């Protein structure tokens, strides 16, 4: 699966602010809520979850 420019932008946002990367991929929903909680608990778990959500499709 090749990267599109939007995937690269989502990854950049996932590293800077993980919930924003998830929001751009899925919109409001359960994944966003999980990512917000993980980011509050620690920045690194939020990044891992954001990358998982972006590459899941």
UniProtKB/TrEMBL annotation:
The chain crosses the membrane at residues 32-55. This is Plasma membrane proteolipid 3. It holds the Pfam family Pmp3. The keyword Transmembrane applies. GO terms for cellular component: membrane. It is found in: Membrane. The keyword Hydrolase does not apply. Keywords: Membrane, Transmembrane, Transmembrane helix. PROSITE patterns: UPF0057. Signal peptide: none annotated. Belongs to the UPF0057 (PMP3) family. It comes from Lipomyces starkeyi NRRL Y-11557.
């Amino acid at each position: 699966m090749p990267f599109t420019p939007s995937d690269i932008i989502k990854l950049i946002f996932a590293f800077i602010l993980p919930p924003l990367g998830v929001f751009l991929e899925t919109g409001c929903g359960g994944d966003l809520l999980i990512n917000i909680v993980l980011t509050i608990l620690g920045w690194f778990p939020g990044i891992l979850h954001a990358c998982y959500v972006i590459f899941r499709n």
